Request: fold
Amino acid sequence: MEMDTTPSNGNNTATGTQTGATATVNPTPAPSSNLPRLTESLKLEHQFLRVPFEHFKKTLRTNNRVVEKEMSAVISGVNDAASSDLSSADAVNHLSSLVSRLQGLKRKLEEGNRAEHLQAQKCRARLEHLESADAEKMSEWNNTRLKRVLVDYLLRMSYYDTAEKLAECSNLQELVDIDVFQEAKKVIDALQNKDAAPALSWCAENKSRLKKSKSKLEFQLRLQEFIEMVRAENNLRAITYAKKYLAPWGATHMKELQRVLATLAFKRDTGCATYKVLFEAKQWDYLVDQFKQEFCKLYGMTLEPLLNIYLQAGLSALKTPYCYEDDCTKEDPLSQEAFRKLALPLPFSKQHHSKLVCYITKELMDTENPPQVLPNGYVYSTKALEEMAKKNNGTIICPRSGLVCSYTELVKAFIS
Reply:
């Protein structure tokens, strides 16, 4: 098909069966006013994705270790059988035991594969949840996030049953980390019962990660087990234990090691404060706190509950010296002791300009809703006073002093 390239009125016109057409351009929709807020909200979801991903990686590592260990044992068994002079019956028995071991490995791999699949599905569900965030439907999405934050708080505070119920009734099972915290619960319960074995097993499972972060948790657990042996006056066993488990830490933690070993001489009923504190029950509480910190670091969690972080973010914008005065209004969140305690380490909000809030409506007084002054000096918003005057035939009653006056007696105040 030939095309006439002669311009006509600045436009190219096609000959033949083609006719001129007017191109229409769809205008780009204006960005939603909620879009910046949505973007900022998604920045806070690092932990939401990091935790299931770290759990998935840990399961993969565990399954790989199982395969390597079992396959190495089977190959070694085959080589031993080949190099030794076994009778036919012994060889059959030996190979049968290896086959049984491989069958056991197969079952473990099937279980591990199911676990990997579930964790991969959880990662996928969370990505889909983040993709579903819509700037025009932020209310529903934020409501789901609030429930997730509450579940996180309940799990960290050891209210596991309540957290499970909330997740179940809100259909959030794939969006919360109950299975991860259940893993921690077993260790915490054991430590609270003065049993360090599960915690030591956890340290062995995550040895390489803990070593990278220079964690002292395993060392502290070993020290506590040594202390418990000294408390039971089983000194010979304590010395043997120290040679096997504490001696390797001497190069990096000699001072702490020397202090604990000295308890062999001072005993559990010592009056010396330096050593007496080592036998106190609060040492186990310290280990619980230390484990929680290491657990959160391992999974990329915040050390503080998310609920506390969000509340502190809001309180930091509200905190002023007036909040701690006796006449602080009850509507101010910082009038409550719990919020004051949470806001204690936060700086005061930097207010460049004063803001006037109406005592009646709790709305901001500005040029659109200017303040008006009563004869007794109290100030309220125009909106509140106009509504009051309409209801009372032009009469104004001060809600704080009880003064009765006419709407015409009010004086308009100006904000500079």
Summary: Residues 13 and 19 are 8 Å apart (CA to CA). The beta strands are 7-8, 11-12, 356-357, 364-365, 371-373, 379-381, 395-397, 404-406, 411-412. The chain has 17 helices and nine strands.
